[in-house]
């Protein structure tokens, strides 16, 4: 049975990914700070895959290293993120950068160290900032212009993935 580790598994995108992989019969380790909601767990029980709901912080490198070393994952998805408003940007910008960027990059390092063949890291339309509202399509060649710390972290993830793929044996997308 193929397996995947998903950080941020209790978030909107995380829950959808968990459901997708479970419906395809995968073994899913869903890691999130608050755990998968009870209603979702009940719904997921009917799916053919197997879920382990792990309540943990995506910044816990020791735990992630242990799990990646003990289990053979076919894929790792760095989905944990803080999508914040301006007040949180003012009071704890380091937390946003630490989770959205540093934890994702460190998970990429661990996945490579443990020879995980697939790594997915999320960007966001927030990396383009106000470009999406400029009255014309946004192109991949447009310069990023994030209007938030969240957007800046997602733009940085894009750049790191581009560089990683130029130098590393295990690709990230």
Secondary structure: elements and pairs:
Elements: E1 3-7, H1 12-23, E2 27-32, H2 38-44, E3 50-55, H3 61-70, E4 75-78, H4 86-91, H5 93-113, E5 119-121, H6 149-167
What does the model show?
The protein is α/β, with parallel strands linked by helices and 173 residues long. Helices cover 43% and strands 14% of the residues. The protein has 6 helices and 5 strands. A 5-stranded parallel sheet has the order 3-2-1-4-5, sandwiched between helices. Helix 1 links the parallel strand 1 and strand 2. Helix 3 packs parallel to helix 5 and helix 5 packs parallel to helix 6. It is globular and about 45 Å long.
Pairing-aware structural class of the strands and helices? alpha/beta
Strand count, sense and barrel status of the largest sheet are: 5 strands, parallel
Kindly report the spatial arrangement of strands forming the biggest sheet.
3-2-1-4-5
Distance linking N and C termini: 23 Å
The helix/strand series, from N terminus to C terminus, equals EHEHEHEHHEH
Radius of gyration: 17 Å
The geometry reads as globular
- The overall pLDDT average reads 94
List low-pLDDT spans: none
Helix content: 40-55%
Count of helix runs = 6
Determine the strand fraction and express it as a percent band: 5-15%
Question: Which features does this protein show?
Answer:
173 residues; alpha/beta; five-stranded parallel beta sheet; 5 strands; globular
Explain briefly what this protein structure is.
The protein has 173 residues and is α/β, with parallel strands linked by helices. Helix content is 43%, strand content 14%.
């Amino acid at each position: 049975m193929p397996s995947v580790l998903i950080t941020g598994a209790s978030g909107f995108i995380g829950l959808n990914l968990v459901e997708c992989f479970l419906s395809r019969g995968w073994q899913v380790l869903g890691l999130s700070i608050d755990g998968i909601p009870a209603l979702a767990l009940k719904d997921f029980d009917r799916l053919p895959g197997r879920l382990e709901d792990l309540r943990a912080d995506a910044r816990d490198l020791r735990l992630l290293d242990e799990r990646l070393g003990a289990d053979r994952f076919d894929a790792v998805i760095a989905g944990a993120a803080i999508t914040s408003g301006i007040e949180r940007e003012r009071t704890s910008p380091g937390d946003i950068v630490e989770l959205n960027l540093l934890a994702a990059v460190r998970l990429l390092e661990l996945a490579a160290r443990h020879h995980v063949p697939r790594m997915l890291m999320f960007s966001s339309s927030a990396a383009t900032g106000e470009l999406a509202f400029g009255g014309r399509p946004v192109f991949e060649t447009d310069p990023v212009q994030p209007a938030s710390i969240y957007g800046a972290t997602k733009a940085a993830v894009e750049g790191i993935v581009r560089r990683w793929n130029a130098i590393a044996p295990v690709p990230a997308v």
